[in-house]
Amino acid sequence: MPSSPEPNITGTNQGTGPDHFGVISKIQRYSTRDGPGIRTTVFCAGCNLRCIWCANPELFTGDTQILYYRNRCVRCGACTARSRGTIIIGPEGCEIDRIHCNNLAECAAACNHEAYESSGHSITPVELTRKLLRDKAFYDQSGGGITFSGGEPALQPEFIAETAALLRNAGVHTALDTAGNAEWESLETMAENMDLILFDIKAFDDEIHKNCTGVSNSLILENAERFARWNKVLWIRLIFAPPFNDGTDWEKRLDFVNFLGKAVNRIDLLPLHKLGAGKYCALDMPDPLEGVPECSPEAVAEALRIAECKGLTLII
Ligand code: SF4
Ligand code: SF4
Predict the structure, then answer these.
(1) Are residues 152 and 43 in the same domain?
(2) Is the CB of residue 282 below 6 angstroms from any atom belonging to ligand 2?
């Protein structure tokens, strides 16, 4: 099916206000896991959590990150020649001195072998909306739409709110995927223009949450309750990552979901995976999950059984 013609979109401020530029990492089309129907997921840069299972470490900071994939590098030396000594070719490919290299993007641009990838660029709500509406025919036919994910969209509330408002005016379903660790005002600003909230609850016990994500969950649980009271349609997302947040914490999380009540429209169980390992390597960062096994099917089956005992049906 061809994409829809270029839409004529006008923002409230034409995207010229400094607050209204956003930084996004990528736009993923034809997604079927981040809400109903066929969707486009917008990955927003920046996150205020540091989950040990995070598969997108390039989103931690809200700025441009350069990933280097040594399996694509042919050791031609083009980037090293441009680097003024901060990139050298070692036995296993390029060795990048990321602390002292202040022009890595420029060096990466010299590569003709796609060994470097850049993540994170600025865009205005109007520009982003225009891009997203190209697939409107798919959204219309499938009952899909747009999901703002991340990273943490709540770190850029005005940008997200304005983009979501433009999309809604164009008749597109909008969803917000958040870890909820933000002031309520920021979440509310965005959620007013959202049809669906995907809300992550990563652990119930505060100490476990701190160990897994680096932050307390008190604000997160409070915000989950606020969404439930508001009666926003909620999809709760539960990462299941033994040995970090299983056992009694799993049971407590399920009890909390039950407590949220009828606003919860669906519950997803997300088993721990290790698909982010290549990105940690490409960013020269240690992989926090090194040596940790992936979640076994038996553990997932047991987690589902416990949920069922509590009257909850989870979707994997
Ligand atoms: S320019 Fe690309 S292929 Fe050549 S050494 Fe640098 S990263 Fe490797
Ligand atoms: S909230 Fe999401 S993006 Fe942020 S660190 Fe956790 S898994 Fe990564």
Answers:
(1) yes
(2) no
